[in-house]
Amino acid sequence: MEVEGSSPMLLRSSLEKLKLNSEDCKPKTLQSNKRSALEKIGWGASVSSREKIKRRSLISLCLGVLGQHLEDIIDDLSEISVNFPPDSKMIMVAIARRRQLLNDEILISLADSSWDALDISGSDVSDFGLTRVAKMCKSLRAIDISSCSKITVIGVSELVQHCRSLEILRCGGCPRSEVTARRCLDILKPKLNDLEGDSWEELDSMNISDGAESLRWLVWSKIDNDSRESLTTECPRIIVNPNPSPFGFRGLDVPREALPDTTLDDPVVKDIDPKTWSSHRVQPRVIVPPVSNLPELLPVAERFRLAFAERDARLAPKRAKNARQHRRRAEREWVMTSTDAKSIALASQLGKSLYSRS
């Protein structure tokens, strides 16, 4: 009884300290005093948490659930997302990239012709996927292909050829991407059909062929001095790694997508729960050297063991996927055949109908 009576007494003593009759008590001070009184009795945490928590929309919650189980619906993703709006498809691409699941199949299944920005950095997208998307999304204005080890000069060439409105390109990041970026310099520079002009200002747009005609910003964090000097000399309109400034850069406002420390698709997933991708950490792959590369001096039993370990590591993802499919199939069969499951479903429908009538 002492514990139950202490809360009202504490609440009363706290409220007496609010000085409600004081003339110089401002509304803000009154509100803060009320919050401190509630915190003393254990209610303050819930009040402040309600103020800080932003309610997410139903669409964001549904997309978050789909993102958590993305690996289970990859095979049917093209059929599932056929009626998705463009922004929802972009959210799914961003979630797949953060979960390290983004590849050609997912990207092509979700690609939409209305996209003007795309972030595939650090993914398994190759030249094939990039080419398909470039042909479909011709209005792309900004793209991030940094740390994409499977993208080569061929993919970048197709991107520049089909996306004539491309203004921002983010590249480099890993050793293979650095090599690709250096080899793409000739593709990014415009080529001239008329070499008799005295200056760039006298050239007509018809005299400039190939090259990234609209490219203005290049984000390449580890660009070497030779590449930077080559771009500055031969194509000065391409600005490399612009720094944020309130006065702009060369009289131009630097877009957010061109800032070096910016993630291109952050605004896309601002309403998605970060647990969607943070709770799914990719397990490090067990790298087993191929049996063919092992020295012939190893015993036959050891070579057989290594071959079995290699096969087991290769088939582990497929076994996990099959187990999930069998579990979902068993749950569906139970719902369709079990009397208890049907009773629960009917009771749920009855409860919803009664709730809607009331």
Tags for this model:
Leucine-rich repeat, LRR (right-handed beta-alpha superhelix); single chain; 358 residues; two-stranded antiparallel sheet; mainly alpha
**Low-confidence blocks of residues:** 18-30, 43-52, 203-209, 281-288
Q: How does CATH name the architecture of the largest domain?
A: Alpha-Beta Horseshoe
Beta-strand content bin:
5-15%
Give the strand line-up of the largest sheet: 1-2-3-6-7
Provide the residue-averaged pLDDT.
Answer: 78
For the biggest sheet, the summary is: 5 strands, parallel
Class by helix and strand content? Answer: mainly alpha
**End-to-end CA span:** 40 Å
Task: Look up the CATH topology of the largest domain.
Answer: Leucine-rich repeat, LRR (right-handed beta-alpha superhelix)
Radius of gyration: 30 Å
- What is the helix content? 40-55%
Shape: globular
Q: What is the H/E string?
A: HHHHHHHEHEHEHHEEEHEHHH
The level 1 CATH classification of the largest domain is Alpha Beta
Into how many domains do the coordinates divide? 3
Number of helices, counting only DSSP H or I runs of 4 residues or more: 15
Count the E strands: 7
